């Protein structure tokens, strides 16, 4: 049993309670009408009172025992899920250890390290390697399902560039696409805003969708596209494959749901992949769906939340409020680029720079915001001695990063002021920064 079936059980018992309350309401209405008509006898009043009390006590009793039962069920379910998870993780460890040595041995023979092998031996060893990989994947999927069911799946969001992430995944999958004669293309623009997601889990989503597309596309191409939509990025994997019938498009996200394949060249899966990635997408605050036409192809789309970026003033006010309330010190930096006017896509450049700064400083930085040609940053508790270290680190990152929108001879300048030492309001801090000597990066 899982949480969904438990949920259904709870809904079932709400029905009789509602009926009882309705009965009580009708009885009350009847008393009221009789009272208005002046025909309310003492016996009738006592009888009605007893009837309503009985109904309410009975409803209360059902509700109470129902709640207790559900609590017990929930507790039992949690324990059994935990046991299942532990059992699976134990079994997976037991299976993975001999499998790893099997895989290593097979690879050693396959790549000729132990002596030459003929083409036929190569072919059969390659099949054996593929089968070992499939067992590894099955173990991983079963572990994921049990982690999701017991609610222990870990999601650690961080700002990421989806184009970079997708390109990395596609490089790995290029080989299997080429083997089937398929074109695997990324059409994701580099300058989309960063998303706030778990890196490994997002790689898992993309890998699974692209892997399925390769599996279910006999010829043609697979494209990965992305666009910005309100506070999300919509990422789609589009193929020219066998497609999915309308009646199956909702069900394929269910656990263990598979469509019977007519083609014999399609390796049967386990019907777990889409179910797992749906849970991951939803845990990251997104949605996933598919549009498809049998014989023409499928388009799987999922959404990822964009890193919220705030205005300069708003975030500076927030930092000052927090600094005052908590008695914390911070340093406000202003980063400026001189030939800002020459940069074509300014919004995209700002996003790229913002992402770079966030990556450089990891979690110790709050981007204050971007306004005109300046970027503001707040760093908490940065001593004067550490500033030199921070500046040289930033200098290095900016120098080695290849900005796609930046003219070759760009220069960055940076200046800073400390809160509360140099000023206790945004205005005084900014004035102080203007008066300070800037450093060229
Ligand atoms: P499986 O391991 O069986 O591929 P999934 O959960 O990944 O499990 O997929 C469930 C079913 O959805 C598959 O069995 C397949 O029939 C269908 N499916 C998934 N992706 C595609 C696709 N790109 N084109 C056609 N059918 C697909």
- The assigned structural class equals alpha+beta
Sheet with the most strands? Answer: 5 strands, mixed
Q: Low-confidence spans: pLDDT under 50, at least 5 residues?
A: none
Averaged pLDDT: 81
Distance between the termini: 60 Å
Bound molecules: adenosine-5'-diphosphate
Radius of gyration: 31 Å
> What count of helical segments does DSSP give?
10
DSSP strand (E) fraction?
A: 15-25%
User: Given the C-alpha coordinates, what overall shape results?
Assistant: flat
Order of helices and strands: HHHEHEEHEEHEEHEHEEHEHE
The strand count comes to 12
Strand order of the largest sheet: 2-4-5-7-6
**Residue share in helices?**
40-55%
Characterization of this structure:
- The chain is of the alpha+beta class.
- It contains ten helices and twelve strands.
- The chain has helices at 3-36, 42-110, 119-149, 162-179, 199-215, 273-283, 312-326, 346-361, 384-400, 426-435; strands at 157-160, 183-186, 195-198, 221-229, 232-239, 288-293, 297-305, 330-337, 365-371, 374-380, 412-419, 439-440.
- A hairpin with a 2-residue loop joins strand 9 (365-371) and strand 10.
- Helix 1 (3-36) packs antiparallel against helix 2 (42-110) and helix 4 (162-179) runs parallel beside helix 5 (199-215).
- The model has no long low-confidence stretch (mean pLDDT 81).
- Bound molecules: adenosine-5'-diphosphate (ADP).
- The site of adenosine-5'-diphosphate (ADP) has 18 residues, from helix 5 and helix 6.
- Adenosine-5'-diphosphate is lined by residues 212-213, 216, 239, 241-242, 244, 252, 258-259, 269-275, 298.
């Amino acid at each position: 049993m899982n949480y969904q079936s438990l949920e259904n059980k709870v809904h079932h018992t709400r029905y009789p309670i509602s009926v009882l309350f309705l009965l009580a309401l009708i009885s009350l209405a009847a008393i009221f009408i009789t009272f208005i008509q002046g025909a309310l006898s003492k016996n009738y009043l006592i009888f009605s009172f007893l009837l309503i009390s009985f109904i309410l006590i009975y409803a209360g009793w059902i509700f109470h025992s129902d709640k207790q039962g559900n609590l017990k069920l929930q507790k039992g379910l949690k324990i059994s899920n935990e046991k299942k998870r532990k059992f699976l993780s134990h079994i997976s460890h037991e299976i993975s250890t001999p499998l790893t040595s099997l895989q290593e041995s097979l690879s050693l023979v396959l790549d000729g390290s132990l002596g030459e092998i003929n083409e036929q031996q190569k072919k059969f060893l390659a099949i054996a390697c593929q089968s070992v990989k499939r067992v590894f994947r099955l173990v991983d999927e079963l572990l994921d399902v049990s982690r999701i069911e017991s609610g222990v799946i870990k999601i650690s969001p961080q700002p990421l560039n989806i184009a970079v992430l997708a390109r990395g995944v596609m490089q790995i999958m290029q080989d299997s696409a080429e083997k089937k004669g398929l074109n695997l293309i990324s059409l994701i623009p580099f300058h989309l805003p960063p998303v706030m997601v778990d890196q490994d889990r997002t790689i898992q989503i993309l890998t699974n969708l692209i892997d399925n597309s390769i599996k279910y596309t006999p010829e043609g191409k697979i494209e990965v596209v992305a666009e910005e939509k309100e506070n999300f990025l919509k990422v789609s994997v589009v193929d020219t494959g066998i497609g999915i019938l309308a009646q199956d498009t909702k069900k394929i996200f269910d656990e263990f749901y598979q469509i019977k394949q007519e083609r014999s060249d399609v390796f049967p899966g386990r019907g777990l992949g889409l179910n797992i990635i749906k849970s991951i997408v939803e845990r990251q605050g997104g949605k996933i769906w598919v549009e498809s036409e049998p014989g023409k192809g499928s388009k799987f789309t999922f959404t990822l939340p964009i890193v919220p970026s705030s205005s300069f003033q708003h975030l500076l006010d927030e930092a000052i409020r927090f600094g005052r309330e908590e008695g914390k010190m911070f340093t406000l930096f202003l980063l400026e680029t001189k030939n800002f006017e020459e940069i074509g896509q300014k919004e995209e450049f700002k996003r790229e720079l913002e992402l770079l700064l966030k990556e450089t400083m990891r979690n110790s930085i709050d981007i204050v915001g971007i306004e005109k040609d300046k970027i503001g940053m707040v760093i908490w508790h940065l001593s004067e001695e550490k500033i030199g270290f921070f500046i040289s680190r930033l200098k290095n990152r900016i120098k080695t990063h290849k900005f796609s929108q930046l003219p070759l001879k760009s220069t960055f300048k940076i200046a800073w002021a400390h809160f509360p030492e140099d000023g206790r309001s945004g205005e005084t801090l900014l004035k102080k920064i203007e008066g300070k000597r800037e450093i060229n990066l």
